[in-house]
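note to self: dont lose this again. the chain is below, predicted strucutre after it. 585 aa total, dont forget to put it in the shared folder this time
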Amino acid sequence: MKTTTFSMHKLTGYRQIIFALSGGLLLCGFNFFDNALDWRNAEVRNGKIYSRGENKTFSGKVTNIPSQNIFRDKTGYKQLSGHTGVEQINSYDMDSLCDTEVNEGIIDGNIVCTTQSGAPHIKTTFSKGAINGSFTMYSYSRGVLIAEASFKNDLLDGVIKKYDEKSEKMISRQSVKNGKPDGRYERWDPETGILVAEANWKDGQLVSKKEMDRQGKLASEVNYKNEQLDGYYKNSDINTHVIIEANYKNGKLDGLAKNYSLETGKLLSEINYKNGTFDGSAKLFDAETGKTIVDGNYRDGFPDGGIVSINPKTDEVIKKGVFSDNKFTGTVVGYTEFPGLTEIDLKRLGKIILIYDELFTYKYTDGIMENEREYLEVKAAVDKIRKCLDLVHSYQNDPPEKRLPAIAQCKHESGGASSVQGTSNDSGGTAKPTDATSGSAEAKPQAPTRESLCSGTEEVIFSCSTGEKMVSVCQTNASGAVQYRFGKPGSAIDIALPENPASREGVVKGTTSFSVGGGSYIAFTKGDTRYVVHDYVGQRGEDTGIDVEGRGKKPITIQCVGLPIGNLENNIPASIPVDPQSMRQ
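---
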C-alpha cells in the first residue's frame, strides 16, 4: 500500500492561511479562545449584564461575581436560610466569588463559586437566569460538603440533604416539591447518628411530627390537620417537668388528657375535655405517693356534680360537696403553715402557735360561705401570727440573745399567749378563735359581699372579695375591652386599669402550669407595676387572687376570700392578646 507523507514545510501554507483567518476574525472582535469579562468591568442594566460602556448585552464567561449578587433574590436559595419548613444551611450568608457562563446578558450555564482561598463553596447550574438542576454547597471554613439540593426554575424541588461540618455525616433529609415541603423529613444526632426527629409534610403543611431524645426514645408527637393540632398529642415540657398526653380536634383539646412527671413518670392528672373546655371527670394525683387528691367532674367548662379533695399526707378529706349551676354546697378544710421555724421556736411561742396544726372548715351552700365572718376572724389572727413569726424567722441564724427578744416581741404584738386559744369543733368542726383581734370589735374585718365593682351594664369577667375590699375584672364594651378594678364596694375605686375603659393597652392573658394543676390569668400593666389576677387549681384546690409585681420590688399576693364570681379560663374575651410569658404561645 502506498502511503503519502507530508513534511512540516508542506503544511506551512495551510498554517499561514489558518493564522491569517484567525487574526482577521480577532480584528473583527471574535475570540474563540477566551471571551471573559471580569465583574469589575461589568455593569447590570434592567437585569442584564453588559460590558461596561457597551450597548450590546454580554455573552461569554463572567468571572469574580460575588455570590450574593447571583443568589440573594432567588426564592429557593433564600429558603435554605431556614425559612418555614426547610432545613437551614449554615454557610448561607457567607459570600464567595463565582465564575459563570452568560448568554445575551443572562446567566445561563454552570456556576462555580470559590472562597478567597480558592476552595469550592457553591456549584450549580442556571438555565435562562433561573437555578435548575443540582446544587451543592461546601463549608466556607473547611471546604467539606454541607448541603445537597435540586432546583427547578429557582424553586427547591427534590431532596435536600444537610451534612455536619465536623463529622461530615448526613444529619437531615427533606423532600420538597415546587418550593414547598412535601413528604418525609428526618434529622439525626450528628455524633451518635440516632434519629432524633421525623415529620411528614403535604403541599407545605405539616401533617405530623415526632421528636426523640438522644437515646432514640420518643419525647413528643404532634399531629396536624389544616394547620391545626388534630389527633394524638404528646409533649415533654422541660420547663414544667411534665409529660402531656392528649388528643386534639380542630386545634382544641378533646377527650382524655393525662399529665405525667417528667422525672418519675408517675401520673399527675387525668382531665377530660370537649371542644377545648373541661367536660367530664377530672382527677389530680399526688406526685410522690400517686394517691388521688382531687376527684371531680366538669360540664361545659364549669364544675358539676360531686367533688372530693384529699390531703395526701394525712388522707383527710379537705373538700367534699356538690357543684350545681357553678355553685358549691359542702365543706372545705383549710389550714395554715409556718415553715422555717425550729421545734424550739414553736415551743417558746406557746399557745399562739396552736393554729399551726388546726383546721378551719369553710361551709358553703349554693356558693355562699355560711361562716365567712368566722373565717375572717381566724384570718386576722393568723395574719398577726404570721407577721410576728416572720420576724422570728429573720433571726434564725442569730444567737439566742437576739432570738429570744424577738420571740417576746412577737408574743406581745400578737396579744400574748391568749391571742388564739386554739379551735373548737362545736359547729361541725368549724374553728372559732376567741379574742382574735384583742377584743376590739371595730378592728375586725368586715365580711365581703357577693357583689362586684362592675356596673349593671358591664359583664363580670371575674370578681372576688379580699376582705374589706374587692377586685373585679369587668368587660366594658362589646368589642372585648376589659378593666381591672380594686377598691371597697360602695366607695371610690382605688385602682382602675387601663384608665380608659375602652383601651386594651397593657392588658394580656395567659395560662400557667404546675407539677399538679394550673390555670388562667389576666394581667394589667401600668409603668413598672403589673397586676396579675389569677384563677388556679393546685394540689390543695383553688388558688385565686392578685399578684402585684414591680421591677426591683418584692411581689405581693392578695388572696381571694371564698369562691369568686366568674371563671377566667372561659370568660376572658378572645380579643385580649396572649402574654408572651404564657405557656400557650
